[in-house]
Design a protein that fits this description.
It comes from Candidatus Eisenbergiella merdigallinarum. This is ABC transporter permease. The protein is about 75% helix and about 0% strand. It is mostly helical. The chain has 13 helices and no strands. Helix 4 packs parallel to helix 7 and helix 7 packs parallel to helix 13.
Length: about 270
C-alpha cells in the first residue's frame, strides 16, 4: 500500500497545478486582508485571527476545496483510462480496491494540506500586519479537522464521478453543482439547526462542518447580531465524535462503492 501511495504521489509531481491548488486556499483570506477595511480595525490579535480563520473555514474550504478535491479525483481515476494503462496495471497484478484506496488516501492528504497551507498563509498575513496571532494554533488544527470532514463529504461526489466515468467537463459540472448545494445548506438556518440524525443538515459536509467548527471561534464579546445567531444555532452544535463519526461512516460506505465500481472497470479493461 505505501508503494501504491508513493506511485500516485509521484504522478502529481508532473502536475504542479495541484500543488498550487493547495496554496490557493489562502486567496480568499488574502483578499479579505487587502480589500476589506475592517481588517485594520480589529480590537485585538485574537479578533484578527478569528476573522481570518473564519474566512478560511467558511469560504475557502467550501468554495475552493470541494471542487478541487473532485477535479483532482477525476484526474487520478481517469488517468489510467486516458493513457490506456489500466489493463497493464491489472496484469501486474494490482488489486483495484487497493489502488482506489491509494488514490482516496492521496485525496485526504491533499485536503489536509489545503487547509494547513491556508492556515499558514493566514499566519503570515497576520504577522505581517502586526497582529499578535492569539489563539491561532487552536484554530489551525480545527482547520486540519475541517479538511478531513470536507474530504469525507466529497466522497459521494467522487463516487458519482468514478461511476459515470465520462469526462473532465462532466466532473467539473458535478463538482460545482455539489459545491453550490453544500454552500447553501451550510449557510441556511433551516439545515444547520436540524437535529443530529439522518437528514441533510447532518449528512452534507457544508452544514456538518459548520455545526462542528463554528463553536471553536471566539465569542467572548459577540455583537448583537452574532448573539442572536448563537442563540438560534448553539443547541445544534456537534461534538467531535458526532462530526467525525458521521463523516467516517460516509467515507467508508462510499469508498466501498468506489472500490466496487473501480474493480468492475478494471475487469472490463482486463
Amino acid at each position: 500500500m505505501p508503494d501504491l501511495i508513493l506511485c500516485e504521489f509521484f504522478k502529481l509531481k508532473r502536475k504542479p497545478l495541484f500543488f498550487a491548488a493547495s496554496a490557493a486556499s489562502g486567496l480568499i483570506p488574502l483578499g479579505c486582508a487587502l480589500f476589506l477595511p475592517d481588517f485594520h480595525t480589529f480590537s485585538s490579535g485574537a479578533e484578527a485571527v478569528d476573522s481570518m480563520m473564519s474566512s478560511l473555514f467558511q469560504m475557502s474550504a467550501t468554495l475552493l476545496l470541494m471542487p478541487a478535491l473532485v477535479v483532482l479525483a477525476s484526474n487520478l481515476f481517469f488517468e489510467e483510462h486516458d493513457n490506456d494503462t489500466l489493463k497493464n496495471i491489472v496484469t501486474v497484478p494490482v488489486s483495484m480496491p487497493a489502488l482506489a484506496l491509494a488514490k482516496i488516501f492521496l485525496l485526504l492528504l491533499f485536503s489536509m494540506a489545503f487547509m494547513a497551507a491556508g492556515g499558514l498563509i493566514n499566519l503570515i498575513i497576520l504577522t505581517a500586519a502586526g497582529w499578535e496571532p492569539t489563539g491561532f494554533w487552536r484554530l489551525f488544527f480545527v482547520g486540519i479537522g475541517q479538511g478531513i470532514l470536507m474530504w469525507a463529504g466529497a466522497m459521494p461526489c467522487i463516487f458519482l464521478v468514478v461511476a459515470l466515468n465520462r469526462s473532465y467537463i462532466i466532473s467539473v459540472i458535478i463538482a460545482f453543482f455539489y459545491t453550490a448545494v453544500n454552500y447553501i445548506f451550510g449557510t441556511s438556518d433551516l439545515f444547520i439547526t436540524q437535529p443530529f440524525g439522518l437528514n441533510p443538515g447532518t449528512l452534507l459536509p457544508g452544514s456538518l462542518t459548520f455545526r462542528w467548527y463554528f463553536q471553536y471561534l471566539d465569542f467572548s464579546d459577540p455583537g448583537a447580531e452574532m448573539a442572536r445567531l448563537l442563540e438560534r444555532i448553539s443547541s445544534s452544535f456537534l461534538n467531535a465524535a458526532q462530526a467525525f463519526g458521521t463523516a467516517g461512516m460516509e467515507a467508508f460506505v462510499f469508498f466501498i462503492l468506489i472500490a466496487l465500481v473501480y474493480r468492475r472497470q478494471g475487469r472490463q479493461k482486463g
